[in-house]
Write a structure and sequence with these properties.
Elements: H1 3-8, H2 11-15, H3 23-36, H4 46-62, H5 65-78, H6 99-105, H7 112-120, E1 136-142, H8 144-149, E2 151-162, E3 178-179, E4 188-192, E5 198-202, E6 211-212, E7 225-236, E8 245-248, E9 264-270, E10 277-279, E11 282-290, H9 291-296, E12 298-302, E13 310-314, E14 323-326, H10 342-345, E15 349-356, H11 363-375
Helix pairs in contact: 3-4
The chain binds zinc ion (2 copies).
Length: 391
């Protein structure tokens, strides 16, 4: 049982009695309804069970003279256009007041501001302002392939929320803030300015809130503020890059009083791939080749990320470190509509060859390399390093 529920729920209605019913009538109504909806008489009937709980909850409050008094005060404070500030204490009906929303709209606990606004505006009825929810920040780590194809991730988000212990009222669970004895809930008191002049000023006892917390909630020390954690699923778009910050519209903190949700910004970390690197829409791959393949030319089989291997035709005399471009075998192009040509839908695969030198030679291989050496003895690769002196 929390205080905000008190403002939201009509316990008299739950018991089917009028607001000024006598204690005896309330007790009678409770007994009748409790008997009629008792779970023992309705095994497995969820509706009867809920009704029984609602009746018990209502009686727990309005069946207790002290709690009933607090409840009546609470409702007259919060129901129908801020009853007390319109000059009367009676409930006038209308929208039930939601303490949670209200406190949230006040940044979590101060009634003062909005009441101040009300009085500043000449006591006109103040509508609860809609407010856009806050933007939130989060991070996600996705796999290399997931980043290329897009992926849905679960994100745990923390945002400001009313204290769950007291539902944002700041009062210990089971108690309610009391109407301020100095200003009687008005939040303002008349101060003499000397002579015949008086001015309204913010009530020093409740600091304009109109309510005082006698027994502060131990969880939030009376501030009414807390943190809410929730888990949402978010779609990371295809082609996201490592370190990119993406904006998910409407996935931030909920709006207040019908205001739009804030946005969520997610910084995405992309895991490295065992083979492939990525430069924008292009993928890169380093492929080892042998000296003879480089010298004589070769057709080598190259893996691709998303399909069957492709054959790369390497010409004779390919230098170490040359990069070959294989069109349309890169990453899906991000931020561009496909033009219908399949090679435009993806970037390219950039294959860099790396000539490997054998660490160990078999006897035959050694003989062959020595024969090669003998056959090319006339050429000096380093001749031009020493030609022409310094410069
Ligand atoms: Zn006061
Ligand atoms: Zn609290």
């Amino acid at each position: 049982m929390t205080n905000s529920d008190w403002a939201e729920k009509d316990f008299y209605k739950a018991l089917g009695v009028s607001k000024d019913a006598s204690a005896a009538d309330i007790k009678k109504a409770y007994r009748k309804l409790a008997r009629a909806n008792h779970p023992d008489s309705h095994p497995g009937d969820k509706t009867a069970e809920d009704r029984f709980k609602a009746v018990a909850e209502a009686y727990d409050v309005v069946g207790d003279p002290e709690k009933r008094k607090q409840y009546d005060e609470m409702r007259s404070m919060f129901a129908g256009g801020f009853g007390p500030f319109q000059g009367g204490r009676t409930t006038t009906g209308g929208q039930p007041f939601d303490v949670d929303d209200f406190l949230r709209s006040q940044g979590g606990g101060s009634f003062g501001d909005i009441f101040g606004t009300m009085f500043g505006g000449g006591g006109a009825r103040t509508r609860r302002a809609t407010r856009r929810g806050a933007d939130l920040e989060s991070e996600a780590t996705v796999g290399f392939t997931e980043a290329l194809d897009g992926v849905t991730v679960s994100l745990r988000l923390s945002s400001d929320a009313p204290c769950p212990q007291c539902n944002g009222t700041g009062a210990r669970a089971g108690t309610v803030p009391k109407v301020c004895p100095q200003c009687e809930g008005a939040g303002m008191v008349a101060a003499s300015m000397g002579g015949a002049f008086t001015m309204n000023e913010t009530c020093p006892t409740c600091r304009g809130r109109g309510l005082v917390v006698e027994d502060p909630c131990p969880a939030c020390h009376g501030s009414g503020r807390g943190v809410s954690n929730r888990t949402i699923s978010a779609r990371i778009p295809a082609g996201v890059k490592d370190g990119q910050r993406i904006r998910l519209r409407g996935k931030g903190a909920p709006g207040e009083n019908g205001g739009p949700n804030g946005d969520l910004y997610v910084t995405v970390h992309v895991s490295a791939h065992r083979l492939f690197g990525r430069k924008g829409d292009n993928l890169s791959l380093t492929v080892p080749i042998s000296f003879d393949e480089a010298a004589l030319g070769a057709e080598i089989k190259v893996p691709t990320l998303n399909g069957a291997p492709v054959t790369l035709k390497m010409p004779a005399g390919t230098p170490n470190g040359r990069t070959f471009r294989i069109r349309g075998r890169g990453a899906p192009r991000s931020g561009k509509r496909s033009t219908g040509h399949s090679s435009d839908a993806r970037g390219d695969l950039l294959v860099t060859v790396e000539v490997q030198v054998p660490a160990v030679l078999s006897e035959d291989a050694r003989a062959a390399v020595e024969a090669y050496q003998a056959a090319t003895a006339g050429s000096d690769l380093r001749a031009n390093l020493f030609a022409g002196g310094r410069g």
